[in-house]
Every structure is written in C-alpha cells, then in structure tokens.
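Lab notes, practical 5.
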Amino acid sequence: MSDYIPFIRVPLSDFPSDVLKWMKINAKPKMLLKLMKCCKYFQHFPEFPFFVVKKFHTINNWVETLNGKFLTYEGERGFEKINKKLWITDILAISGQANIFSSIFPKIALCDVYKLSIYGQKLSFDEFKFLTCSGNVKHLDITKTFINHENGDPVFIDSILKCVPNVEIFKW
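Output from the prediction step:
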C-alpha cells in the first residue's frame, strides 16, 4: 500500500479543535506560515500547501523555484499542471497572449514581488491592487496594459501610483 499516511496525533491545545481546523483552512499564506512556525498543530500538512517560486515568467515560459531550479512549461496547458496555489517572491513577468493573465491570476495565492512586469494585458484595478498589496514593488512595468475599474472606467495614474509607494522604476 503505497498511499499509507501515518496517523498523526494532534498536540493538546486550549483551543477547540474546530477553531484550529477553521484557522488552518482559512489562513492567508503568510499567516499560515507563521502558524506553522509557532504551533505544532499547523505543521501536520502532508506537504506545504503552496508552490513557492522566486520568478514566474510567461515571456519565456519558465519558473524559478526557491532552490534555483528552472521549470519550463508550454503555454497555458503546461501551467495548468501546477495543482497548488502560487506564492511568488521576487519577479512576476506576464506577457504574450491577450488572455493569459486571466488564466494565471486565479492560481496566485500571494504576490510578494519587487519587480512586476505586465505587457499587453487587461486587468481590473482590484487584480492590480492584489498584485501590489505587499508594498514591495520597486520596478513596475505596465506597458500596453489596460487597468480598468469594474464598471469599465480607466484607472488614473495617481491611483496606480498609490498602490506602489516604494516604486523606483516605472514604465507605462
């Protein structure tokens, strides 16, 4: 039986098990990592629930993992083979087909990048705010990218710059 998973006893806790289970399921990625570091109960995942990558490029169709390995994929179909949510730590570069962003965005759990490059895509302002919410973006390149509000109105440059307070290089 190759799928044997040993029974793991959960350490005793003052919290009810339902509360701990709810926290485990609903924690955001950074909070889940903190919980895993400080409490034994949260360390009992069969494997880490996120695929952490340094660099994600749709331009050349490759991903660099934290240990320096490069994984290549072929377009959207190759990307669909990733079965975990993505945690991107350094660079996110999206370019290519007009609809590639819409297939990639649902797979991103956390975008903690310092370089964000999106070329020739359409995205909503909420999606842009999600990609830049870490506040770490220093290099922003949104050439030929259309950022609109949900009602279709374009987003003005001052609203975009408020989302990236630490930007040093900006290409538009």
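Observations recorded by the TA: Strands lie at 50-57, 62-65, 70-72, 85-94, 108-111, 115-118, 122-124, 139-141, 146-148, 169-171. The chain has two domains: 12-46, 50-171.
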